[in-house]
Write a structure and sequence with these properties.
The chain is of the alpha/beta class. The protein has a single domain (17-281), classed as Rossmann fold (3-Layer(aba) Sandwich), CATH 3.40.50.720. The protein is 48% helix and 13% strand. It has eleven helices and seven strands. It has a seven-stranded parallel sheet, sandwiched between helices. Helix 3 (54-66) links the parallel strand 2 (46-51) and strand 3. Helix 5 (119-147) packs parallel to helix 6. The termini are far apart. The structure holds NADP nicotinamide-adenine-dinucleotide phosphate. NADP nicotinamide-adenine-dinucleotide phosphate (NAP) binds at residues 27-33, 51-53, 76-79, 104-107, 128, 155, 157, 200, 202-203, 205-208.
């Protein structure tokens, strides 16, 4: 019996392995994308690293190759359809397959109230955060559906479910990415292609430099988070590994928040409130 339990446990852990899988990760030159690519390689995957900063990608690919994985740096602007097409073709030519697609490249780009934003700004943010995801899905989707296997993970944001003023285009794009993910989870389910989304909270990366470089803003932001701290890119990797692996083979259409409780939080002064016994018991 003990042996049986041990065998079962070992099979459970083995299902987290990415050995034999190929992952294409966009926005892999730094931040959450770089951490994900490194995590996937550590779990056994070969990785195609996609972003604009070629030197950074080559540096990361080199270090993954040094650890025994196959890794490829692909310069690609995800706003450019030809670049996206070339990135997918290059990955398939080099590795022969794509098992995992992580649509991670993106960011809010600017803060402006809706009435201060020009239409051009709206389109730029939608193009980077929504249309780029559509472009990769349209090119990788047929490959996965034909093979009858695949895992897609789209990176959203707390603004997906908790709309924020000042970043309306970004929130609208991320909400659309979630909607698209959950629709494709159904369209592609019969082909055993899973589509899920992950929402990181306040993570220490380049896009949050304005907050993390300012002690007051950094503390105020952390105070908004029930777990009371900023996250780091490695906080996101566990869920991204699970969703990429066979351990999540019964999971599709999910939206996982990794945000220290931010999405479900009431304001900080409410959380700090000590509920008065009399008030709590009256009724
Ligand atoms: N950090 C957070 O607190 C947080 C919270 C919620 C959601 N997110 C989401 O998480 C994802 C990753 O963000 P991050 O925090 O890791 O930010 P980051 O450190 O700024 O990384 C962004 C990545 O996207 C790539 N990228 C940006 N524009 C691109 C373009 N036009 N074409 C190709 N690649 C492009 C960047 O590479 P190049 O500049 O080299 O192209 C970089 O690798 C984004 O979708 C973001 O919206 C982040």
């Amino acid at each position: 019996m003990d042996d049986e339990l041990a065998d079962g446990a070992s099979r459970g852990v083995e299902r987290f392995s990415l050995t034999g899988k190929v992952a294409l990760v966009t926005g892999a030159s730094r931040g959450i994308g770089e951490a994900t690519a490194r995590c996937y390689a550590a779990a056994g995957a070969d990785v195609a690293l996609v972003a604009r900063s070629e030197a950074e990608l080559m540096r990361i690919a080199e270090s993954l190759r040094a650890s025994g994985r196959r890794a490829m740096a692909i310069r690609c602007d995800v706003r450019d359809a030809d670049d996206v097409q070339a990135a997918v073709v290059a990955t398939l030519n080099h590795f022969g397959q794509i098992d995992v697609l992580v649509n991670n490249a993106g960011g809010p780009r600017f803060n402006a109230t809706f009435l201060d934003m020009r239409e051009e700004g709206w389109h730029k943010v939608i193009d980077l955060n929504l249309n780029s995801v559509m472009r990769f899905l349209q090119r990788v989707g047929p490959h996965m559906v034909t093979r009858g296997t695949g895992s897609v993970i789209n990176v959203t944001s707390p603004a997906t479910l908790r709309p924020w003023p000042g970043i309306t285009a970004y929130g609208a794009a991320k909400a659309a990415v979630l909607n698209l993910s959950q629709a494709l989870a159904q369209e592609w389910a019969a082909a055993h292609v899973r589509v899920n989304a992950v929402s990181p909270g306040w993570i220490r990366t380049e896009i949050n430099r304005a907050f993390t470089d300012n002690v007051t803003a950094e503390a105020a932001t952390a105070a908004d988070v029930p777990l009371g701290r900023w996250g780091v890119p490695d906080d996101i990797c566990g869920a991204l590994l699970w969703l990429a692996s066979d351990a999540s083979s019964y999971v599709t259409g999910a939206h996982i928040t990794i945000d220290g409780g931010l999405t479900v939080a009431v304001p900080e002064d409410w959380r700090a409130l000590r509920i008065d016994r009399t008030w709590a018991e009256s009724d």
